[in-house]
Amino acid sequence: MSWDERQRAMLAEMGFRLPARAVEAVAADEPDVAVIERPPVAAPAPVISRPTVAAPAPRIAPALPTTFTDLDTPALREAVATCRACGLCEQRRNAVYGNGAVQRAQWLVVTDPPDDADDAAGQAMGGDAGRLLDRMLLAAGQRRTGDQPTAFVTPIVKCRPPRGRAPQPAELDACEAVLARQVALLQPRLVLALGMQAARRLTGLAEPLGKLRGRVHAWRGLPLVVTYHPAYLLRSPADKAGAWDDLCLARASAES
Q1: Taking every annotated instance into account, which residue ranges of this chain make up the domain Uracil-DNA glycosylase-like (predicted)?
Q2: DSSP secondary structure string, the chain?
Q3: Cβ atoms of 22 and 223 closer than 8 Å
Q4: What is the pLDDT along the chain (256 residues), one digit of tens a residue?
């Protein structure tokens, strides 16, 4: 796997440094990901050379309402903005549809529910966490901004749950209908779940995030990779090494 100058810069911002011998060899050949110096971590990095697709999640996907089935992207955005399918609409300021690729996306990035800032702005993943996410995506060869974005970022539920509580099953069911339509419109090759709430919902497994990482799951026929939420990585930078392994696993899965 090779990396250009921008990707090497993004890796440095995430906390990874290329050894001097790798930098000297750049003119002759791009360094393989194996030469990237990682900060020490407690657990060994997962094997990413030959990812194995896990068995489908045991959760049976709910029967989706037909409200969103035939909507195009502008109509779906409007439907989300005015949606009253669950009680979260009562206290939201703005529903968060998501942002990134307009027609086709290589990666669909599904995050934990919007925070207060996202609710106020009506945008997915802003602030410092959003900037870190953008650097992570760029390091993996993806982007949600610019002239040709390749990733689309959206929360697992489109409205902020009050007081930061976890979304309830009925709220998750209502928003999964929106997410299913977003998948149909964007036709991504891979789903990347950021954070425990998004990961548990999409995998259907009530396991710790650490046990959900390091393997490829399946969601609605797509490969699904789980990693840390960028807000968590800002608090626990030592886990950026694990996040980098997850991004490598996602990239390998999308390209296979």
Answers
A1: 114-248
A2: ----HHHHHHHHHHT-B--HHHHHTTTTSPPPGGGSBPPP-SSPPPP-SS--BPPPPSSPPPPPPGGGTT--HHHHHHHHHT--SSGGGGT-SS----EE-SS--SEEEEESPP-HHHHHHT-SS-HHHHHHHHHHHHHTT--SSSSS--EEEEESSSSPPGGGPPPPHHHHHHHHHHHHHHHHHH--SEEEEESHHHHHHHH-----HHHHTTSBEEETTEEEEEE--HHHHHH-GGGHHHHHHHHHHHHHHHH-
A3: no
A4: 555 665 666 666 666 554 444 433 333 333 333 333 344 444 444 444 444 444 444 444 444 455 788 899 999 999 999 999 999 999 999 999 999 999 899 999 999 999 999 999 999 999 999 999 999 999 999 999 999 999 999 999 999 999 889 999 999 999 999 999 999 999 999 999 999 999 999 999 999 999 999 999 999 999 999 999 999 999 999 999 999 999 999 999 999 8
Q: What angle do CA 43, 45, 49 make, to 5 degrees?
A: 155
User: What are the structural domains, with CATH classification, of the chain?
Assistant: 70-255 (3.40.470.10)
Q: Are 80 and 158 in contact (CB under 8 A)?
A: yes
Q: What token pair was written down for 225?
A: 């990779």
Residues in the chain: 256
